[in-house]
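Morning F.,

Quick status update on the modeling queue. The single chain you submitted on Monday has been processed. Sequence for confirmation:
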Amino acid sequence: MGGVRLINSRRSEFEILADILRLAKDGAKKTQIMYQVNLSYSQLQNYLSFLRNRGFLDEIGEEQGRIYRISEKGLKLLENIDSVLSCLR
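Structure tokens below.
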């Protein structure tokens, strides 16, 4: 995962991760995350894998009804990302 946006107006990977984690606070399905965070399906897969494999997101339910919910570890990550991003703004 890359760095923080300094000059251009594109979102940084940290901002994208934070957006996904925020949505997952109340639980969210893949399509909801994909559209609200404005990601392609392949980007979504990469971000979800990254977050799940590191314990920041929990997966709940079956394939058709799978919900992604932020974990305690994910809440701490979101707080840290928000703290860093607020210093850069």
